[in-house]
Amino acid sequence: DTGVSQDPRHKITKRGQNVTFRCDPISEHNRLYWYRQTLGQGPEFLTYFQNEAQLEKSRLLSDRFSAERPKGSFSTLEIQRTEQGDSAMYLCASSLGPSGTDTQYFGPGTRLTVL
Amino acid sequence: GQNIDQPTEMTATEGAIVQINCTYQTSGFNGLFWYQQHAGEAPTFLSYNVLDGLEEKGRFSSFLSRSKGYSYLLLKELQMKDSASYLCAVRDPVTGGGNKLTFGTGTQLKVEL
C-alpha cells in the first residue's frame, strides 16, 4: 500500500515563471486536498476535489493558481507568474470519504523557492 | 472561521509524560485531529476525536471536550524520536460533502535526555 506521492520534492524558480506540481493520492481515495505551509505555521487549506470535481477553493487561491484532477486520480497544481510570496511547502492529502473517519493522509510535499 | 490556539514550544525529558493543549473557537466542527510533523516532512496522522472523551492509541492519547472547545494530546514514555511539531486541526465541512482541516501553528516539542 503506497501512500500519497508528490513530484517534484523541491522546485527552485525565478519570479515570474510558471510551475506545476503533481500529486498522486492513495489509489482508492476519492477525495484530494491541496494545502500550503510556510515556516512556523500549520498547513492552510487551498482547494478540494471529490473525484474529478473541484468543489471548494480557498480565498487564498488567487487567480494565478489553478488545480485540476482530470480523471479523478492524480492532481496538478499550477502557479503562474510566481511571486516570492509563493515560496512555501505545498502539501497534498487524500482521504476516502464519506465513510469512516475520512482521515486525510498527507504526501511529502513540494518545497517551492521563488528567487 | 476558525481560531485554534496551542503553545508554541514545549520541552520534556525522555521517559516522561507530556500534555499538549489545544483550544479552538469554530464556526463549524466535524472532528479534531492531531498530526505529528518532523522538520521538512509531511504531517503524519496520530489521532481523531469527534465525541467527548479520551481516545488511546499506544503511547498516544487524545482528549476532547466540545463544550469547552478544548483538546489535549498526551504522550507517554517519551522517546527522543518524539521531538517534532504537533499540530492540532479542526475539521469542518465544505461543499460537496468533503471536509477541510484548519490547523493551529503547531507545538514544537523537544525531548531531552
Structural overview:
- The complex is a heterodimer of chains A (115) and B (113).
- Chain A has strands spanning 5-7, 10-13, 19-24, 31-37, 44-50, 53-57, 65-68, 75-79, 88-95, 105-106, 110-114.
- With 115 residues, chain A is mostly beta strands.
- In chain A, the strands form two sheets. In chain A, strands 2, 4, 5, 6, 9, 10 and 11 form a seven-stranded mixed beta sheet that branches.
- In chain A, a hairpin with a 6-residue loop joins strand 4 and strand 5 (44-50).
- The radius of gyration of chain A is 13 Å and the shape is globular.
- The model of chain A has no long low-confidence stretch (mean pLDDT 94).
- By secondary structure, chain B is an all-beta fold.
- Chain B has no helices and eleven strands.
- In chain B, the strands form two sheets. In chain B, strands 2, 4, 5, 9, 10 and 11 form a six-stranded mixed beta sheet that branches. Chain B has a five-stranded antiparallel beta sheet with strand order 1-3-8-7-6, with no helix packed on it.
- Chain B is globular.
- The mean pLDDT of chain B is 93.
- At the A-B interface, strand 4, strand 5, strand 6 and strand 10 of A face strand 5, strand 9 and strand 10 of B.
